[in-house]
Design brief:
single chain, 333 residues, alpha/beta, two-stranded antiparallel ribbon, 16 helices
């Protein structure tokens, strides 16, 4: 059983600063890669929703297939002309996919020969046509070669196996090393669903980091490779500032998984207003005497330059609009 600390942000809100700070403490493991296999599309949360809330065996078959397919993309490292990958094997151990395969197998009660039309949709067009012609000519019927997956166990079984799967990842990773007291994972669950963490990480501590919307808007225009960066540029070019306001508010809408968490304003954390870092350590249960690498990763003198970054760029019309529409979210000194 590990002490999990889940640090979550809404994009460009400074969650990585908190992760860097916790990385400086003895007995704390912080992988250099976000742990997104739960919350991303076709991840564990989507799998959970379908297996335990849908009760349609065809959809369950497809959910298991999609999780297996996309988990492979997380494992491998995409370099040069190789297929895209997130390189989890570099951060969570070379056995990550082997453990994931075992987890998937444990969720399947029965494999049987079968086929349904949705599998044809997933086929590349040229393969679908070739198979269709071969079926018509009765050369072979590829549908008789495919497997379908059936699960007949309950929700509690799924939760138990999922928790064991996550623990096994770190058991394997630490097999030849000193066990760590705490594991810090970034972006494991959505920032507006902190209560969902207890479903997969019982007893975990959840930290949610937010930031002044004007700084987030600035980042959305400068992070060219990000999805929000694309939106930020679109918003700025079209002057459709209400789109950004809608986005900012929607990300922060509370879900049914509200739950307990420790909320941090990025600006407060950097400036350490009201001893916010001390309160953070009290919340997660780490003592100050474990702080053996002070300012090795989290450098307040550097991070302070990321406060009020919006003042350094001329988006005056946008900032005035945000100040009016997002008054409750502005950072006040």
């Amino acid at each position: 059983m590990y002490n999990y600390i889940l640090v979550n942000g809404y994009f460009a809100t400074g969650a990585s600063a908190v992760v860097d700070y916790l990385k400086e403490f003895d007995g704390v493991f912080t992988p250099d890669c976000e742990f997104r296999i739960l919350k991303d599309p076709h991840g564990i949360i989507d799998l959970d929703t379908i297996l335990n809330g849908n009760n349609d065996v065809l959809n369950e078959d497809m959910a298991l297939r999609e999780f297996a397919t996309f988990s492979k993309k997380y494992i491998k490292t995409g370099v040069r002309f190789q297929p895209f990958g997130l390189g989890y094997e570099n951060f969570y151990g070379k056995n990550f996919y082997k453990i994931t395969e075992s987890y998937i197998e444990s969720l399947i009660d029965c494999k049987y020969r079968g086929h349904w039309w949705y599998l044809d949709i997933l086929e590349p067009y040229h393969k679908y046509i070739i198979h269709k012609v071969f079926r018509k000519l009765k050369i072979y019927d590829d549908r008789k070669k495919s497997y379908m997956y059936f699960r007949n166990r309950d929700e509690l079984d799924f939760i138990e196996k999922t928790r064991n799967y996550i623990n096994q990842i770190f058991d394997d990773l630490f097999s030849n090393e000193k066990k760590n007291d705490y594991i810090v994972l970034e972006q494991a669950v959505a920032a507006n669903q902190p209560g969902l963490a207890q479903r997969y990480f019982p007893g975990s501590k959840v930290i949610v980091v937010d930031r002044d919307p004007r700084s987030v808007y600035y980042e959305s225009n400068t992070r060219l490779s990000s999805t929000l960066g694309q939106m930020g540029q679109y918003v700025n070019n079209t002057k459709n500032y209400s789109l950004f306001v809608d986005y900012y508010k929607k990300c922060r809408q509370e879900s049914k998984y509200k739950g307990d968490c420790f909320r941090i304003q990025f600006e407060d954390f950097v400036l350490d207003r009201n001893d916010i870092r001390k309160k953070l350590l009290e919340y997660v249960g780490i003592t100050e005497d474990k702080h053996i690498k002070k300012e090795e990763f989290f450098k307040p003198n550097v991070s302070i330059k990321n406060i009020d970054v919006w003042k350094h760029y001329d988006y005056d019309d946008a900032y005035r609009f945000l100040e009016k529409e997002l008054t409750d979210y502005l950072y006040n000194y």
